[in-house]
Description:
Elements: H1 5-8, H2 12-33, H3 35-43, H4 65-70, E1 84-89, E2 99-103, H5 104-120, E3 128-131, H6 139-151, E4 154-156, H7 163-173, E5 177-180, H8 182-195, H9 199-202, E6 207-211, H10 217-227, E7 230-237, E8 242-248, E9 255-257, E10 262-267, E11 281-287, E12 298-304, E13 306-307, E14 319-320, E15 325-326, E16 331-333, E17 336-338, H11 340-348, E18 353-361, E19 367-373, H12 375-379, H13 382-400, E20 405-409, E21 424-426
Parallel strand pairs: 3-4, 3-5, 5-6, 6-7, 18-21, 19-20
Antiparallel strand pairs: 1-2, 7-8, 8-9, 9-14, 10-11, 11-12, 12-15, 13-14, 16-17, 18-19
Amino acid sequence: MFWQQDLETIDRKRLEEVQTGRLQDTVQRIWDNVPFYRDRINSAGTKPEDIKSVSDIKKLPFTSREDLLKNYPFGLVAVPRESIVRVHTSSGTTGKPKAIFFTKNDIDRGAELISRCLVMTGMRKNDVLQNMMTYGLFTGALVMHYGAEKVGVLVVPSGPGNTDRQIALMQDFKTTAIHITPSYALYLSNVFIRKGIDPRKDLNLKRAYLGAEPYSEETRKKIEEFFGIDVFNSYGLSEMNGPGVAFECQEKNGMHLWEDNFLLEIIDPATGEQVSDGERGEMVLTSLCREGMPIIRYRTRDLASVMPGKCPCGRTHRRITRITGRTDDMFIVKGVNIFPQQIENVLMGIKGVAQNYLIVLESLDHMTVQVEIEKELFDGNVTHLVNLQNAITEKLKNEILVKPKVELHEPGSLPASEGKAQRVIDNRTL
Ligand code: ADP
Ligand code: ZN
């Protein structure tokens, strides 16, 4: 079933016409109303009338995170102050927050995108969504909330934390879906184990929407199996609406990026040149419908690739792969580039490994991987533990080409997070 079938299955040629028109409008609006962009576009030697097709996007300058910070708070607002009805800031995973402003139309449009996503995964009016993202300045919870209400779903605005209450709410309201970060979902499963709750038998859960931070396919499988549900990947960022930018359909094979609202480019982060479909690079996004604060060619720093081919679900919007990291979360040990995601992929595929892990950078040449192990193993035979430790070390070395020190920890002993997880601790003094 579709929420907006005509738009979701739009013919690609028609889509391009729509994108061109919206790109032209966006460029004209920021040229007229945002002095920062007028200067930037002018310095790139471009005028609004030079944008004749989508490929002319290359004539426009990039927008960086620093540009947003420099223009904090109102520098990029393109409408009169009275038209702004909401502000969100990013969660600040990487430093100072960025402020993003929304008009009433921006909020409605963002909610429509979420409605598309939810209906696409099978959500209907009689579903109950427990929204376990942080309410407040962060876009995660509120944007999802509005979209779910539009579908007619009953929303339980629980926010994260207070696990006992979460469980009670799930039982009392017969929650069928949760919106949650992967790290909190893993933490929650630990608590369920401790309390002897079997979500497959004791709850009514059917689906979970996991986003806001990278996680691996193995983590998805682990959560699906434990809860007995379908997990759908949800990608978004405050700069482009919050959640609802790209979302998995029931194929669970790549996230449809709503291209009538966002223009997608994937570039080589070093050269800024576009790469071909199937090649991994940095996602660059342009908002095509934003009124309050349009942003062009935003360097997301998120790494992904476009999946070639058509999706069997019939939606024509291209799919992106799982985000495999941010250009800025890569670290180097012994001269080798390593992403935390590679480590998670390996760990979550090993039997006996529990929910949580932490990477500690000790020096330029040494790193430690602390990993939680299932309780039974910890209480059992020491030889088994040593064998497991060696197996983890070996598998990690094969993947990242550097041999880490591996420490095994009891379940629940490593720091857990309700919001975005911090996976890397950098103890290097350079
Ligand atoms: P920030 O984390 O930069 O303060 P946001 O709260 O807007 O800002 O979070 C957006 C970022 O979260 C994205 O740029 C991306 O790095 C990450 N993110 C969001 N959804 C996903 C997802 N499904 N998979 C991986 N990373 C994600
Ligand atoms: Zn699909």
